[in-house]
Design brief:
alpha+beta; Butyryl-CoA Dehydrogenase, subunit A, domain 2; 3 domains
Length: 421
């Protein structure tokens, strides 16, 4: 056994021992999340002084498995924990970490205020403005496709603070309090019938100067850290196994934690692994003997293995303070390919049952969730086309697409239906 395998096994044994000693189903959700966060096992790759254990991603890979073996509930997981937390750790001041990280590890809900009607894949064309007013910044503009904005306490916001420089150079990154009169949130109903996405309108909303993350005009570099973590969260590795609980709704921190766990130890809020879902469909509807199905299942597992590898590479690079590399785009594309393959395979295996809806839908609707998600993942966090451009230019060395706006001040650009002025 290699030294790395020895170290990984040692971490897994240590983690399991902690969960066995500390898991108590009679705790409240708030008490459990506080206990696991204080131990460092909730976010083991975070620095030891900031609720983690400073572990490399490959060493931390077995922590979730150890937790599930014990039957303990997952730590909180969402935009706050997967995007905001790592970004604040990488770019925030110690004062900002002390102020925001305790709420994040305790299950606080945040949202990501990046995309706009005229700035999706071309995020640097965003038009939401922030203007300095004494010790505050005044924000005006609109964001769209903002998950969880209707329940979020804070939002991570990228706004334009200088229209007189090229578009990538005039952006600044803020943390904004969502509970204020200058912010209006309008839900967007999806084809699933849910409304977890929102439009967000800012009218003279206020942000304290101390909520600026990084430097004025340095928001693009900070946003890249967030985007790298987002693409990792949306990548195929996130579908490989249940990890942190992924929830948009508010948590009942007073609930008995044991009531939130299935008998097999998986948290109700955790996502079952993609492989588990494939096996459930095969067991329910058959098809394992079909050579075509077997080939497609093999493709699914190949994509999952690619995802696990790229996920470790990306997390290691970002947590080491490096700029996100093209691996994140490989993982994101793998997620799109994975979900399309799963959608087509699972729906075909379900046969006529795939036309059912509601309580009669295959596996209680899990199969349809895969179908709907196949569209979301190929768009959110940067479209498949954007990911292919990144891989082509940064990995294959193909010529970059012409960028006539590279050195042009933003105020001189035609952006959407308006100029950048």
């Amino acid at each position: 056994m290699s030294q790395m395998q020895d170290d990984r096994q040692a971490v897994a044994v240590q983690a399991r021992a902690w969960f066995e000693e500390n898991w108590d189903p009679d705790l409240t959700l708030g008490q459990w999340w506080d206990r696991v966060a204080s131990s460092g096992w909730a976010f083991p790759t975070w620095p030891a002084e900031w609720y983690g254990r400073g572990l490399a991603p490959d060493l931390a890979a077995g922590v979730n498995a150890a937790r599930r073996q014990v039957g303990a509930l997952a730590p909180p997981g969402g935009i706050a924990q997967n995007l905001a937390g790592p970004t604040i750790i990488a770019h925030g001041t110690d004062e900002q970490k002390r102020r925001w990280l305790p709420g994040i590890v305790a299950g606080q809900i945040w949202c990501q205020l990046f995309s706009e009607p005229g700035a999706g894949s071309d995020l640097a064309s965003l038009q939401t403005r922030a203007v300095r007013d004494g010790d505050e910044w005044v924000v005006n503009g609109q964001k769209v496709w903002t998950s969880g904005a209707h329940v979020a306490k804070y939002g991570i916001l990228v706004a334009r603070t200088d229209p007189n420089v090229p578009k990538h150079q005039g952006l600044t990154y803020f943390v904004i309090d969502m509970d204020q009169p200058g912010i209006e949130v309008r839900p967007i109903k999806e084809m699933t019938g849910r409304a977890i996405f929102n439009e967000v309108f800012f009218t003279d909303a206020r942000v304290p100067a101390g909520n600026l993350v990084g430097e004025v005009g340095g928001g693009w570099g900070v946003a890249l850290t967030t985007l790298a973590n987002e693409r990792t969260m949306l990548g195929a590795g996130s579908f490989a196994s249940a990890g942190s609980s992924m929830s948009i709704g508010r948590h009942d921190l007073g609930a008995r934690v044991g009531d939130l766990v299935h008998a097999d130890g998986r948290a109700d809020q955790s996502r079952s692994g993609a492989g588990d879902l494939v096996f459930q469909v095969l067991e329910t509807y058959g098809g394992a003997g079909d050579p075509l199905v077997r080939q497609e299942v093999a493709t699914i597992y190949t994509l999952l293995e690619i995802a696990r590898f790229t996920d470790l590479r990306v997390r290691a690079a970002v947590e080491a303070g490096g700029r996100p590399g093209p691996e994140v785009s490989v993982g994101k594309l793998a997620a799109s390919h994975l979900l399309r393959t799963m959608r087509d395979t699972l729906l075909r295996l379900c046969g006529m049952a795939a036309t059912l809806w509601g309580d009669d839908a295959p596996l209680g609707g899990k199969v349809h969730e895969v179908g709907f998600s196949s569209y979301l993942i190929s768009i959110g966090g940067g479209t498949d086309q954007i990911q292919r451009n990144i891989i082509g230019e940064r990995v294959l060395g193909l010529p970059r697409e012409p960028r006539a706006d590279k050195d042009v001040p933003f105020r001189e650009l035609e952006v959407g239906t308006r100029t950048g002025r």
